[in-house]
Amino acid sequence: MAPEVTNDPHCRSWVPTANRSGVDFPIQNLPIAEFRRRDSCESFRGGIAIGDQILDLAALAAAGAFSGEAALALHAAARPTLNELMQLGAGSWNALRHALFEGLLEGSALQPMLKPCLVPQSAAEYSLPAQIGDFTDFYSSVHHATAVGRLFRPDNPLTPNYRWMPIGYHGRSSSIGISGQAFHRPRGQRLPPGESRPLFAPSVRLDYELELGVFLGNGNSIGFPIPIDGAESHVFGLCLLNDWSARDLQAWEYQPLGPFLSKNFATTISPWIVSLQALAPYRAPQIRAADDPKPPGYLVSAANQAAGGFDIRLEAYLETAAMHAHHEPPQRLSSTSFRHSYWTVAQLVAHHTVNGCNLRAGDLLGTGTQSGPGPDEAGSLLELSSGGKHSVRVGSSEQRSFLEDGDTVIFRAWCAKPGAARVGFGEVRGRVLPAAADPGAAAG
Q1: What is the DSSP string of 119-173?
Q2: Whether pLDDT at 84 is above 60
Q3: What is the distance between the alpha carbons of residues 286 and 311, in angstroms, rounded to a whole number?
Q4: Number of domains within the chain
Q5: pLDDT higher than 80, residue 3
Q6: Which string of b and e fits 335-356 if b means at least 16 CB within 10 Å?
Q7: Under a CB-based contact definition with an 8 Å cutoff, are residues 30 and 14 in contact?
Q8: What is the mean pLDDT of residues 108-131?
Q9: Is residue 438 in a domain?
Q10: Of the residues 85, 111, 127, which one is the last residue of a structural domain?
């Protein structure tokens, strides 16, 4: 098979900043987001990241760029949400990607038409890229599952079903926010050590979870599962995701039905969605131990085993209020790779639909916390602090076991290797505010 031209690392753009070393958004990436000029009354519309600029797809559509399937996809991408574009399917997404690539390529005859459609990223603000109907969060990192399980079940950290199927739960889409989200520390019931009566109070064990988000494109009809070999054709792309978690609320509420108030108060995603085509040079084999059981056939595929993983570098940073005040840079807490995930993106989609569940354009899947095998690859403070037993040094003089008010958590992700163009995700950041007023105080 001939190499995909849009992944050719030798190609350059007429946008100068897209050709700089280490840039997240070269011409080989072309991620999409919903944006508008900051502090304006403009409608949000689709935009493509190229270097430090955004190609305004609404302006491009109004200029009459492209034709055929690419033009139809462009007009769908110019709307205030990307749901219509997502619903069109992989053929339309690829047609638009190729047309944009050719238009942004160095020497393109379309440069005079595209250049007036550029907006500096520094002048933009973002919204959620789609109307998210449903959100499902998985538990796909065996290293995270083992580390957390060991805190509560030292002799048998993994549940018996873990190696047989992807484990997940249905989350709440209404509290998903875009990067920059600030939220109040959640209140809820928690059971203090040694007590028999729960306490209603703000969480004191607030945590982050380093995840990727998977946006679904065209879905499936109810009752008709998506086969694993066709699962990726339903994936519109990936973003960064922080599934904030109140560990003390979670410990009290999760039996017998799982997370509820400990998870649904806030989830933050990055604005840019990176396509699987852009990530193609960074595919990796699925990692499984030789003695692990072979899951049921609907989760098995030779193509998935050979190249269903992605070597996406993931990093978590923390900036405390004191660090911000003293102009200290955010501190990196951990670094890992999505290639360590036990379950692949295709397996998450196939398992989600195997019972006949229908997915729809704009639905979002979380991969679950991504942790690697090393102690510095943990994707949560729960792991880094061994369940709060010791603190992590932060900045010049602070310690953290869990998040405090004023803390900002930042995730970054990218792919890089010799012989391929760097592909970045940008970043996602969110900030913890003090708990809001106690709703029961007046009654008490």
Answers
A1: EEGGGEEEE-SS----EEEE---HHHHHHHHHHH-TT--S-TTTTTS--EEE--S
A2: yes
A3: 10
A4: 2
A5: no
A6: bbbbbbbbbbbbbbbbbbbbee
A7: no
A8: 98
A9: no
A10: 127
Nearest to 411 by CA among 269, 293, 304, 300: 269
Q: Report the C-alpha gap between 269 and 376 in whole angstroms.
A: 23
DSSP string, 54-102: EEEHHHHHHTT---HHHHHHHHHHTSSSSHHHHHH-HHHHHHHHHHHHH
Q: Are residues 198 and 117 in the same domain?
A: no
21 class by beta-carbon count within 10 Å (0-12 exposed, 13-18 middle, 19+ buried): exposed
**Whole domain around residue 150: which residue ranges?**
135-433
User: Is 10 a known active-site residue?
Assistant: no
Do 36 and 143 lie in one domain? The reply is no
Helix, strand or coil, per DSSP, at residue 435: coil
422-435 pLDDT, tens digit each: 999 999 999 999 99
H/E stretch holding 278? none
Are residues 57 and 139 both part of a single domain? Answer: no
Single-letter amino acid code for the residue at 267: T
424 with 278, same domain? yes
Written as one letter, the residue type at 87 is Q
Condensed to tens digits (0 to 9), the pLDDT of residues 265-292 reads: 999 999 999 999 999 999 999 999 999 9
State the catalytic residue, choosing from 75, 98, 143, 144: 144
Bridge partners of residue 119, in order along the sequence:
54
For CA atoms 269, 273, 276, 279, the dihedral sign is: negative
Residues 252 and 139 both lie in one domain? yes
CA atoms within 13 A on the CB side of 351: 23
The verdict on residue 12 lying in a domain is yes
What 3-state DSSP class applies to 305? helix
Write out the two tokens for 260.
């509820």
Q: What is the pTM of this model?
A: 0.97
Structural contact between residues 381 and 208, judged by C-beta atoms closer than 8 angstroms: yes
